[in-house]
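pinging the channel bc i need a second pair of eyes. not urgent but kinda urgent?? the chain im working w is below, pasted from the shared doc
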Amino acid sequence: MTDPFGTSLERYEASPRSRGVAFVLAVVLGFFGGHRFYVGRTASGVAQLCTLGGLGLWAFYDAIMIAGGEFRDAEGRRLTHWDPTEAESLTPPMLAEFERMRAELDELHERLDFTERMLARPAAGTPEERS
């Protein structure tokens, strides 16, 4: 499915799994991969179980990713809702528009950076030659 501008909306689909539940599981059972089993990522959950959460580093990283909203379930959908009963607050077209605005802001930042570098560069020649 795409929006009117041709952006794929599947990229913005939210997972039905709770971000809050996944975070609690990551903190409590992160060494055993409990949060990964919860979101359906069983292969990496088994790997995390066998390595004790990558000796804690992998489990800590996952907890940060979940808290930041960047953790994804087995289908690649981002865990966005803290409350398991929470309705989706941002629709896919809204998220697509935020992505476009972010791209425009990045472009403006690049232009501003270029302009600042051009203005900071000294003029060619000595002051006597410019007179």
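so The chain has two domains: 10-85, 90-120. and The chain has a mean pLDDT of 80. — does that match what u expected or am i reading it wrong
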